[in-house]
Target: TBC1 domain family member 9
Amino acid sequence: MWLNPAEVRLPCALWATERANPYFVLQKRRGPRDRDGGLAGLLIGTLDAVLASGARVAPYRILYQSPDSLTCWTVAHGASYGEITKHWEWLEHNLLETLSTFENGRDMNTFVRVKIQGVLAESSQNCGVREDGDTDKFKEATSQFHRLFDMPEEEKLVSYYSCSYWNSKVPRQGWLYLSINHLCFYSFLLRKEDEMVIQWADITQLERNATVILPDSIKVSTRAKEYIFSFFLNINETFKLMKQLANIAMSQLLDNKTFEQDLSLPELKSKMPKKVPALKRDLDARAKSERYRSLFRLPKDEKLDGHTDCTLWTPFSKKHVVGQLFVSKNYICFSSKEEAQCSLVIPLREVTVVEKADSSSVLPSPLSISTKNRMTFLFAYLKDQDFLLRRISGFLQETMRRKFEPPPPNGRPQAVTCFPPQVYSWQSSLPSCSSEPESERHLYNTSMPTAVQPLMAVYRRRSPEEFSPKLAKEILKEKAWRNHFAEYGHGVCMYRTEKTKELVLKGIPDSMRGELWLLFSGAINEMATHPGYYEELVMKSMGRCSLATEEIERDLHRSLPEHPAFQNEMGMGALRRVLTAYAFRNPSIGYCQAMNIVTSVMLLYAKEEEAFWLLVALCERMLPDYYNTRVVGALVDQGVFEELAREHVPQLYDCMQDLGVITTISLSWFLTLFLSVMPFESAVVVVDCFFYEGVKVIFQLALSVVDANVDKLLKCKDDGEAMTVLGRYLDSICNRDSTLPPMPHLHSLLIDDKESYPEVDIFKLVHSSYEKFGAISADTIEQMRFKLKLRVIQTIEDTTKRNVVRTVLNETAFSTEQVEELYGLFKAEHLTSCYWGGSSSPMERHDPSLPYMDQYRIDLEQFKGLFSLFPWAGGDHSDTLALRFFRHLDRNGDNLINFREFIIGLSVLCHGDLTDKLRLLYKLHVWPGNSLFGCVFHQAQFIELCKTLYNMFSEDPREQELYHAAATVTSLLLEMGEVGKLFCNPTGMNMGVTEEGSTNGGDTHDVSVSSYSVLSSGSHTELDDRDRLRCEEIAEDTVLVRSSHFGDSLPNPDCLDKDWTISFDQLLASVLTEAALVHYFEKPVDMAARLAMAKGMRKLGSFLSSTEYEAAPPPGSPGLSEST
Model:
């Protein structure tokens, strides 16, 4: 690119002159790989590795030198020789002739400077300067990253950091490159080179360590090795980015979430520096948005636009609260600096006015926001009031525009009408699933209405004593909440303070529970922005039969069976609709056990649509990855609970580990939010706290339950006895404030109580959990989750690998190590297509819900990438043969093959006998629709077989001998086909077909392949040109030699003889006559060498340690000359 002329001294030992003229010099920076680099090259390589000078200095530059001065000016530089050559040619074409006319060196210098500055300004104007563009320094570092590690252009570099890698107790100073899919390290110190490439998907552990020798370091662990990096300038930023990239890789393994860069980054202030690369800004914005959504329970697609320090005037306390203001496209949120003091969520759909307030010394830079429910929020001490007001006003205008947009012509269907006074009606019975296609099978009437009020309002059983003390206490709770609403606001814009938390811990009244669950979980926002969405899902999903709906039907009768609401079809119908609608919304989750229990409780206190959105919030935001086929989230939290138990209940931890209790309780307790192990009226209090505080409540309560039973658990001898102790304790937890009559708990009915447990008040237990374990923060849990998520997902991947290997070992002759390596390559090919794109969607190829063998599948393009493992790969015909192999292995015709199909096909070529290999070769050339038995080759298929054979031999050491043997076999087959033709059509054996199609006896020429002998090009060099006939259907090194008693006509594909055929037995018999071919098909295959070559080509986690580097120029590099 062109540069503003900058002064530089000449000559310089660090640069070598490539081209020169009287006014300009094109130079290349010396490097360690230059043939004549010498000591200077080694020095530069070391400086580049240590100081990253290569990331600051482009490898090519053009200097302008005045004839009467030793001073030069840099006018252009480039990352490649092609780029700098374009600038050089422009200078020669546009400036050289003009410069020769100047007599004064000063005028010449002025002319060159003005001309270059003009070209630079024009170039900037034409190209435009993107606000989120990367700096020149980062672009050069990206070029160096691709060059050093041979990465494709699709692999995006995120950032790079100076650090040391500890290799055998010796630090190697170099540079750590972090890209979307790889962690790479490069160091070059005085002829010793360290190069490392690790896929994020291979990392099993990532943690920060602190020792006496290394006060702050990062340890990266894979299945094979541990790597330690230290001496970072900013280790916090580096480790945070590494965690984020590892998380992206785990998401790819878990649910095929491919990374796509977000180009709609938040607007930057005009005075804000733009030194951060666009992709790094994108990842930083994602991390901030994720924390923002988690903090305020916002929808998953909400993106944080920015945040700023400010104060909020709180009318209930008559003071300003210091905190931060967060702004996004649809929400304005506030969080106090002091935790739990005050938080606020203001949806822009509720905002009516945003304006500046009167500024004063007491209240500088204020901003006033008014809402529909006549609440006004006053923010002050805003650093950039005008910029903030402009952003909020723009978002507000867009919100209003979307609100008043006319609905699309084929929009959502009308909501289903409900019929009072009934909640809904059941109109049809449930038929059994038949063998009809899924799209045609119906389970129930699709026109059923949905519930408009909670089931508790219909099925609540009142006590005879209407004004009992419990009911009076319930009324007092309702009054306390109404007073709270009057003081702190009602609805989504309510101030959420410590007082709100106190009321939640005292218990939410039954009549307000559904409303507050919606508010605290954030489900109210998604329901408000998606009107009619649930009804549309009900219409589309009800009546469809699938694996999810079948599982739902099995579990319906197990969903809170002790409650009267689910002892008839009304309650079960509502539960069926909610679960089926969610399975239709999120097929990746579908339905998971425990969802029915949680949803049934939601339906008791919330309307049907509200229960649906509560389920969405639970499964997709509050407990991510819990309710899928592999319950990864629950397994991760199981590990988190183990770590917390080790820290907070150390005297019990070893005992629980020996008994295996933690594994059992974490899944049953966490998946159902204690609803399946605790009396119903007590468990709903846990759900109250969960929706307000999040998952930390579940951990606190679990630790409290374990801590309360320490003495009894220490005396247990096995896991059954320990579970009995915990089960009895949980059954004894009661809610003395509940107005509901006690319902027998299913768990308590299964336990034979030999001794009565004292009752445990749920509110005391909750308060105790906050007192003892309230210090556990959400941030702490998230950090522990990340650490354990890597381990859990990699353990699942290892389990899948072991099951696949164990299954295919009995079907192939490969060793266990070879099958494992082949599986690694097969999986890596799938991941590579996820990284850099492919011809099919990753979702199609990877489905964790399928059996182990079918979880990873590859398409044709990926199969071609692995075809080098097959012994027959090679030559120009390799892709065509790969296509034939793929079609043969794809038995179900879905254009995908699994690992079992892949390895069985490979096993035939590596371990099959001659007959098996020839049979496979024969099958590959049988046209689709034909079978081997009773099938014969025709001429076109025979031509393709010849092409395949000649290309298979092209890279063999005995190439010429194999060509001669193939020529003999094919000639023999041609004669067999001719003889077969005589028997098939004896009356026409001397008849030919003219171009006009008329018969002409023996005067016409037979144009079939049977009239020719197939020979290799090296076996008939003395033949006359008139006797050598080339056929376009045969490979380039193959010719068809005309028999002497025929004319000179070439075979025409349109005139191929359909009576000419050969069979597999004839092919086998012919090959057996040639020892060279027999040896070729029977020789052993060195699979270890092929695997090593494949892994080397893919650079899967390759590590080149302390290798002696021999300076050599890259292929095709231009010659270098020393500067004088």
Remarks:
- The longest helix spans residues 778-809.
- The two ends are 26 Å apart (CA to CA).
- The first strand starts at residue 2 and ends at 9.
- Confidence is low (pLDDT under 50) at residues 127-132, 409-448, 987-1055, 1100-1124.
